[in-house]
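Hmm, how's this folded?
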Amino acid sequence: MDLKKDIYGTLGGACKPDVIFASNTSSLSVSEMAAASGRPERFVGVHFFNPVQIMKLVEVIRTDDTLPEVF
């Protein structure tokens, strides 16, 4: 988790303000990663269902801070 938070913190300072961040949840806290990015309002989580090559379904997860237009 520390590595992901470090990466999103770096990306938060390097990317254009309108960039939307998304991360595979991997059972980690999307809210923690969103906060580390410095722009939690533009952050979502994604969850791919298994088996990925057969299941044509992706769940998008919002946080309490995710803006409606991002979600």
Q: What stands out?
A: Residues 23 and 71 are 14 Å apart (CA to CA).
